[in-house]
Write a structure and sequence with these properties.
Residues 12-51, 474-511 are annotated as: Disordered. By secondary structure, the protein is an alpha/beta fold. It has two domains: 40-257, Alpha-D-Glucose-1,6-Bisphosphate, Chain A, domain 4 (2-Layer Sandwich); 342-480 and 511-598, Rossmann fold. It is built from 14 helices and 18 strands. It has helices at residues 71-83, 209-214, 236-257, 272-292, 300-321, 331-336, 356-363, 384-387, 435-442, 499-502, 509-513, 517-531, 563-578, 582-598; strands at residues 25-27, 33-35, 59-67, 92-100, 138-149, 158-169, 172-181, 198-206, 220-227, 347-350, 368-372, 390-392, 394-395, 412-413, 422-426, 446-449, 537-540, 549-553. Strands 3-9-8-7-6-5-4 form a seven-stranded antiparallel beta sheet. The chain is elongated, with a radius of gyration of 29 Å. The chain starts with 24 loop residues before the first strand and ends in a 6-residue tail after the last helix.
Length: 604
């Protein structure tokens, strides 16, 4: 639920910033007339038609709007809202589900008193479902969730029962979703939730679709209602919250109606709860301190919290892969700790930039170090023990090292690290495509978070989706649209509907199919990893950056090959990708490296 909702008065909108005009016909690029999707047109309290019956006089209808989607889509959208409250509130991380009647074989929908004979009776008293009824409706599902705030120092979690009801009445079908907070008075309600005892979302759908269409009326209606605490009245803030909630449901339902499918999937490697709990702890521990002592000219709100998010992901990842450092054990856990996992091998943060990520990981007890081509002012703000692990150095892979002058041996690093050290490549630019190659040469696992696209000689380029050795493109990232093979030769052909002919600046269907430079870079790094024997995993990180995809290589490689054999494999791969001999490539890399040393540092 969002209490901070800001709108401005605009032409064609009401005072709450919502379109009040009906759908209009617009001309497409081929002069065909298409219909806009139905607009969100809420009716305020004075004009709405309340549901036919309410449980008691404390229920107050707040907003109502026409609804173009049927009951099954409404139920699907509401279930998503129940499981993902962060969709409607920036103050919330997630919902932890304690009970779901769909997983309870003993659930009896005719029983409205809890605990029943099912699983609910085994819950703690504060987590047991709170009963509720809706006149003439049948209870179909009950979920108990706990809303987890983004900032636990300011807001406390809230336990809430969510009931789903259904009622058939002649030619109408009613679906009701009711939120029942486990709070007994308005003063105890957290900031992020309206101070009301219950919230109901009703969806009324006429089953006489043909007659409705003929009369040009809407087939469905959605209404949002509050049940007030005794002695309280509705506030402007609660009305704004109701508007945002109903508008979000309408938007998501309309998307479902038009066949929307989610393309970006989060939390495929680390569960959301584990990541967010660790992030919250780290944010409280490091966020304010690092932001207040920020000495770069860039925004600390982005860089600090981005690195905290990456650190939280790595800590949870390493807990799955390695023995946890003894610093993280409690006394009881230390006694019981018997792990078959290998010890943590250390990490190296290549292109570490401002050093914040290295600092956090070191402070959390994970040994390692980081290096970058240019020192950062931020390094001097860290303790001496951390500064000792931040080095100014240029990476020149050892297959190039014979081409460099001996005068630079102290500045250049050959890319051979401690055995099996975990390699972190966070927006490392020139080092991004080299990340799986370095991991291969060091028998290491790696994580790459790409940003800008560079080739294996360090020059800017647009990466292909795959290496030249892999003819069939690998599985695409969720945000990448596949380009059919036959389209490759058609890219330069003139479109039948170019802007000069149509006056439209809309992208053509073929243009929409072209993947972005960032998406092809991610695919290219993944392809390099596959060619070197990794079984890469991919995820989209929960960090404040549009460059938030990661490629993880922790499985599939073998340490049996000799170092010389691996060098030959990497050498052949580079020469094939760049179509030049290794001496010329090495010379270009070193030239680019020297230029990089002279560039001014950035905030990263």
């Amino acid at each position: 639920m969002i209490l901070t909702y800001r709108t401005e008065l605009q032409p064609g909108k009401n005072k709450k910033g919502v379109h009040i005009s009906g759908p209009k016909a617009v001309h497409s690029s081929d002069d065909q007339i298409t219909q806009k999707k139905p607009a969100f047109e809420p009716r305020e309290r004075a004009k709405l038609t309340p549901p036919s019956s309410l449980p008691d006089e404390l229920w107050l209808p707040i907003l109502q709007c026409p609804c173009p989607f049927p009951p099954e889509l409404f139920s699907r959208v509401m279930l998503n809202m129940v499981k993902n409250p962060n969709v409607t509130s920036s103050h919330l991380f997630r919902a932890d589900i304690f009970y779901d009647s769909d997983n309870d074989q003993y659930f009896d929908p005719s029983t409205t008193e809890y605990p029943s004979n099912g699983l609910a009776k085994h819950l703690k008293a504060e987590y047991q479902p709170r009963s509720a009824q809706w006149p003439g409706a049948q209870l179909t599902r009950t979920i108990v969730r706990q809303l987890i705030p983004r900032n636990p120092q300011l807001d406390r979690p809230l336990v809430q029962t969510c009931h789903f009801f259904r009622r058939l009445d002649g030619g109408k079908e009613d679906t009701v979703v009711m939120y029942v907070p486990h709070v007994d008075n308005a003063d105890e309600m957290p900031f992020y939730h309206p101070a009301v005892s219950q919230i109901a979302f009703t969806h009324t759908w006429s089953t006489h679709g043909a007659s409705i269409s003929a009369s040009n009326e809407h087939q469905g209606t959605m209404t949002l209602l509050y049940r007030l605490y005794s002695g309280t009245t509705i506030t402007t803030k609660q009305e704004r919250t109701a508007l945002k909630l109903l508008q979000t449901i309408h938007k998501h339902g309309q998307g479902q109606l038009l066949g929307y499918e989610k393309r970006v999937h989060l939390d495929r490697i680390i569960p959301q709860k584990r990541y967010q709990d660790t992030y919250s702890v780290m944010k409280a521990k490091y966020g304010k301190m690092l932001s207040e002592q920020w000495v770069e000219h860039t925004d600390p709100g982005k860089h600090v919290f981005e690195d905290i998010g990456i650190a939280a992901f790595l800590v949870e990842l390493w807990r799955d892969m390695f023995e946890v450092p003894m610093k993280e054990f409690t006394a009881s856990e230390e006694k019981a700790a018997v792990s078959s996992k290998p010890p943590f091998p250390g990490f190296v943060d290549i292109g570490c930039g401002n050093g914040v990520l290295t600092y956090i990981l070191l402070t959390e007890g994970y040994h390692g170090w980081g290096f970058d081509a240019r020192r950062r002012k931020t390094w001097e703000t860290f303790p001496a023990s951390v500064q000792d692990q931040l080095k100014q150095s240029i990476l020149v892979p050892n297959i190039f090292i014979t081409d460099c002058d001996s005068d630079h041996q102290g500045v250049f690093h050959d890319g051979i690290f401690d055995p099996e050290a975990f390699i972190i490549s966070n927006h490392a630019d020139e080092l991004t495509p080299w990340t799986p190659l370095l991991a291969f040469l060091n028998n290491s696992a790696f994580i790459a978070i790409p940003c800008c696209s560079h080739d294996l000689a360090g020059a800017r380029f647009r990466a292909p989706t795959t290496t030249k050795a892999i003819k069939k493109a690998p599985t695409r990232l969720p945000q990448q649209v596949e380009v059919p093979a036959g389209d490759a030769d058609d890219e330069d052909r003139p479109s039948k509907h170019q802007a000069a002919e149509t006056g439209s600046l809309k992208r053509s269907e073929a243009q929409r199919k072209i993947p972005s430079a960032y998406s092809t870079l991610c695919s290219y790094v993944r392809s390099l990893a596959i060619e070197l024997g990794f079984l890469p995993e991919e995820d989209v990180l929960r960090i404040p950056s549009t460059r938030n995809s990661c490629i993880l290589g922790r499985n599939g490689t073998s340490a049996s090959a000799e170092n010389s054999e691996k060098r030959d494999v990497v050498k052949r791969l580079i020469e094939r990708e760049l179509k030049r001999d290794i001496e010329a490539i090495g010379a270009q890399w070193i030239e680019n490296a020297r230029k990089l040393m002279k560039k001014p540092s950035s905030g990263h």
